[in-house]
Amino acid sequence: MDIAEFETWSKRLAQWSAEYRRTLRDRPVRPDCQPGQVLAQLPEAPPVDGTDMATIFADFERIVPEAMTHWQHPRFMAYFPANAALPSVLAEQVVSTIAAQCMLWQTSPAATEMETRMVDWMRQALGLPHGWRGVIQDSASSATLSAVMTMRERALDWRGIRSGLAGGPAPRIYASVQTHSSVDKAGWVAGIGQDNLVKIPTRPDYGMDPDALRAAIAADRAAGYQPAGIVICTGGTSIGACDPVAEIVAVAREEGLYTHLDAAWAGSAMICEEFREHWAGVEGVDSLVFNPHKWLGAQFDCSIQFLKDPADQVRTLTLRPDYLETPGLDEVVNYSEWTVPLGRRFRALKLWFLIRAYGLEGLRTRIRNHIAWSREAETAIAALPRFRIVTTGRFSLFTFRYEPPGEDADAATAALLERINTDGRTYLTQTRHEGDYVIRFQVGQFDCTREDVMTAVGVVGELAEQT
Questions:
Q1: Are 265 and 80 in contact, with CB atoms under 8 Å apart?
Q2: What are the pLDDT digits (tens) for 96-124?
């Protein structure tokens, strides 16, 4: 492909992209697709000779769009959103064209320095203390892994990266039973192990119980373990649970433990000052992660980890062979030394485009609308016959259950969810809460409207009546 053909097809792709976004409401959110359906349309062997772009693109249109779940659909109410506001999409097109590997300052001066500024813009937007710094990771999972490795090394006086974990007391990490599975995986990858991730019970509001945490740490010290750190949760994935940040930080200070706050989804809401009560005490944590690529509108991947003092994480993760030196610039920031991967994308540009295009007030309006519409949806579902709200709204997430008399409520709820998702007008997902099968309903797609939300509610009621 030469530059002229590249220009032609770039225009064609821009037209296709605009039409795709324009017609999303006309598509089912989740495809009518069976396992193996796409695979059967792809040749088993790679082509020997090249294929013209017209044929390639025709095959794309035939095979791919109708076999995708449409995450940008305005009635996507499942999981958490993975929003891609249009200005951030444009930024990603530019990033793909430049195609820089942004591992070092010298390989990407603009990307590195824009990352520094965008992280600080977001620090200000969230009301975090002056002087905190941060790095844009690919996902909250990577940020949490970085924090868990830092906890481990601080507790072991950096012996782990030199000689491994054998021969000493096992490091222990503490988290709520409502914590995300990425914390478990971080324990696996960091060599701490599932048995050394201690799940702390919660209070009636489903936030971690600080007294139970204090007791668990004391018991572990007595048993010869090495307490290393605490992972705190604001806006858990299952039901949106929030730990009492200030109280847990107080325990951590008593015990000399490192703290990491996982606010991957709900952190975006903190650009609105009225929601910051949910993480009161945040200024006391050592590390914090939130994902602009979830609720804020930055195209995936874009996860910001804030650090009160980066020194410990940089000490844990820096590995600088001769070929990665920047001669004469020893003090320059190389963000690859703050993260596990060496290779890095230019993630800050989409934040620059996004924040400038909407302004903080435009983004705040969306967050506030989503939360208000979620409350309205919760009230409407509560009024439907045979439905029960199981957990009330946390930010823009609530859960409910379908309980027809004389039927197994788990089975009835699961069957209803399958009908909803097969119908295609909206998409919801499930979780288990205190042993019960429940449906999650979260509002957060960037371009959804009140009408989209209430349409989803109408689908739930309509399909329940069809049993």
A1: yes
A2: 888 888 788 778 888 899 999 999 999 99
Do the domain assignments include residue 89? Answer: no
143 in the same domain as 67: no
Q: What is the DSSP string of 251-270?
A: HHHHHT-EEEEE-TTGGGGG
Residues 337, 438 share a domain: no
Helix axes 348-382, 86-98, angle to 10 degrees: 150
- SS3 category, 133: strand
Please state the domain count of the chain.
3
Q: Which residue range forms the structural domain that includes residue 58?
A: 3-74
425-439 exposure pattern, b = at least 16 Cβ within 10 A, e = fewer = bbbbebbebeeebbb
126 and 39 in a single domain? The answer is: no
Q: Distances from the Cα of 270 to the Cαs of 139, 151, 205, in angstroms?
A: 19, 26, 20
Q: Do 201 and 272 sit in the same domain of this protein?
A: yes
pLDDT digits (tens, 9 = 90+) for 182-215: 888 888 888 888 999 999 999 999 999 999 999 9
234, two tokens: 């604001």
Rounded CA-CA distance 375/369 in Å is 10
Q: Residue 438 forms beta bridges with which residues? A: 431
| Domain-embedded: residue 259 | yes
User: What is the pTM assigned to this prediction?
Assistant: 0.91
